[in-house]
Amino acid sequence: MFGSLDWSTLQQFWWLIVSVVGSLFVLLTFVQGGQTLILTVPKTEAEKNLMVNSLGRKWELTFTTLVLFGGAFYASFPLFYATSFGGAFWVWLAILFTFVLQAVSYEYRRKPNNFLGQKTYEIFMVINGSIGILLIGAAIGTFFTGSNFILSDYNLSRWTHPLRGLEAAFSLFNLSFGIFLVFLARTLGALYLANNLQQDQLVPRLKVSSFNNLLCALPFLLYVLIRLVTMEGFAVDPQTGDIFMQSGKYLNNLLEFPLTLILLLAGLVLVVVGVGLNRFTASVRGIWPAGLGTVLTCLSVFFLAGYNNTSFYPSKYDLGSSLTIYNASSSHYTLTMMSYVALLVPFVLAYIVWVWRQMDTEKLTDAEIAADKKSY
Amino acid sequence: MIEAIDAGTVNWARATFTLTAMYHWIFVPLTLGLTFLCAFFESIYVRTQNPEWKKLTKFWMTLFAINFAIGVATGIIMEFEFGTHWANYSWMVGDIFGAPLAIEGIVAFFLEATFVTVMLFGWNRVSQRMHLFSTWMVAIGANMSALWILVANGWMQTPVGMVFNPDTARFEMQDLWAIISSPVAISHFAHATSSGFLLASLFVIGISSFYLLKKRHLQFAKRSIAVACVFGLFSSLFVAFTGDEHAYITAREQPMKLAAMEALYDGMVPSGLVAVGLMRPGVEPGGEEDPFYFKVEIPGMLSFLANRRFGSFVPGINDLVYGNEEQNILSVEEKIDRGRMAVARLADYKQAQKNDNEAAAAVALAEFDQHRDYLGYGYLESPEQAVPPVGITFYAFRVMVFLGTFFILLFLVYIYLLEKQQLENRPWVLKVGFFSIFLAYIASQAGWLVTEVGRQPWAIQGLLPVNIATSNLDTTTVAISFFLFLAIFTVLLIAAVKILAKQISLGPEGE
Hints:
Radius of gyration of chain B: 25 Å
Structural class of chain B: mainly alpha
Number of strands of chain B: 6
Number of domains of chain A: 1
Oligomer: heterodimer
Distance between the termini of chain B: 62 Å
Strand order of the largest sheet of chain A: 1-2
Structural class of chain A: mainly alpha
Strand content of chain B: 5-15%
Number of helices of chain A: 15
Helix content of chain B: over 70%
Largest interface: A-B, 76 and 87 residues
Number of strands of chain A: 4
Distance between the termini of chain A: 47 Å
Largest sheet of chain B: 2 strands, antiparallel
Strand order of the largest sheet of chain B: 1-2
Largest sheet of chain A: 2 strands, antiparallel
Helix content of chain A: 55-70%
């Protein structure tokens, strides 16, 4: 089935898969966003515990999706994996460290004799939800603003900036992208928690919080969108594979590839609808339209970066070294084999949904957390 | 020309990866085995409906969760470290190596991550059967994860199912099934996972023995020991069987590693197995010095283990480095010469391509093809560089084997005393059982030392030496990352141990 597809089709298919996994990861960063809310939203220790326990039942899925995102990139576009991780060394290590700290924080937070104290583990969670997501946003921003690397004839990379990736955070576009993702994660976190908890004092505050965080996200979103449609982009000559700067490249992509524009607009509208639903009605189900909207918006961003003869990981230092889905991918055979493996993804999604439904049929309450000695 | 990276950078990158892998492997084997033990305990509870078994299950799940969290934390670093610290490797073999990592994510990690929440928090939210099912899924997910990562590691030890593509300057996959079904991968998986079962069994037995010594939770402890002993005995026998098979395969695929495991410098017919020996430090390949101060040898046994024939030849380090015409073994020097030819012709090919000189490219490619199998040797600086650190490999192998044998005896003693209802009256046995927790960790780490140190200097056996596999980083950057990893992992390890110790002191009554 997949073996008969030509290489470029498989490369495009795998960019789609990476985009879907990346978009699902952004949706699942509601966990990280929720972690930052524990500083401001809860008024009592019991409320904080309730929030942490609700998020703690989902953190592993976010974590696993990040691991899969890395694995999928490695298997399908290994030149990106090698160039970005080996080059933008410090930014990736900083991101990883925040996730390492998160991984132990839930389990160790309230365990007796936990060495660092409850407050420290909560700070770890906040660091993961703020700095971790901000840096991920800045790293994704470089898909549009470019990075500082050069490839040898053997496709081995050398980073040319001494800050080794941290310089991405000094670009206003990248920084805005990162801050937007942080507020989006906080918005999603508040929406998720409002839907998952049964607590009369806390839920109304979460509903307001989702609205406020969306308001905070908007200026950064607007800046990112305006820059995107006005900036020069990294275009690929389909005949020669050469990379060149093209004015209005990403605007062209939106217009020449209308699905991207539709996804972007529909996604943003759905996020607003979700937040509005929670803020202005009695409903707490805003996470569903907002979650779907987040996935559609992120898909649009990935499509903008990779499709329509665009370099998804451009080099500012040496345009010729820029990565495209065609020059950075795995071989035809590997993409074919991995495409068969990807057929398992719907089954994986199906059992995740099934288990979530089983676990979340009843909302989480203070009483359940208080009665459970294993609670986080 | 692919340039060799500064030795300081390479060594710090190796140290960082070693540190990460050894920390990660503190937690992984316990996860692999304890998930199955929890599944056994819970199955007994569901079958008997005895609430004591439920309490027992929940206690071991609590310890599992503490261990699992830090295992996850160190695991994510492992995956991304291939990119951050080993970027050249990631490009040159990513076409092959990335696949098992991605498959691991799809088929194993999600299974584990999805059902572990049900296992830990679903007691009152899902049916009893659903909960039991979830516990089994966590055990299967954790072990399936091990399968894929060991397939990846097995391929690094014995690369199969691929070809070097001079146009992309990387190795590309040709046969996924050959990689998955490689005897080295299967043998790795069987040996490593069963050693995890063994370690987890000793963990349960050790902590239960502690309770028996303290005259606390007696029934709980004896029930835990009964299940763990049976699981541990079968696992330890399987570890011995797969270990033997693994050594047999190593003799075929990585003879230099086997020679280092035995500190065998000069191959002979027949070759004896060194049961006990004290090595003389500083012995170099090609030297005249006896590598041992003393040794106790089992005559012919190494020949038998390596070739299943007592009178067979087992090559030593000197045979492999300097060649042995009689045994048709090519010297490393000859391989290096051929490898350098391959490297030079590859450079010619790339240059000819740049110049659009098709004729010159074809000539260079034809000559490259004659020597391509030795490409990796072209990056070695001397024949002696092909020899791994012999002392570490030799002693680590003996530690692993002696402890593995001891564990079989320990399980038998426990089963006998439990059957005779004498276990509580044998405090010295209980003390040995308790301290065997630490011995199990030592044996487990020693096993990986043999596997990984014994294959140096290769990132991919025979194809890609470590000195061209790392990222193009300066030494200071990599050294700083090492100390950052060391600090974070150590703090988290201390936290994990303190929390575990507290939970153990609270005991099952804390559930």
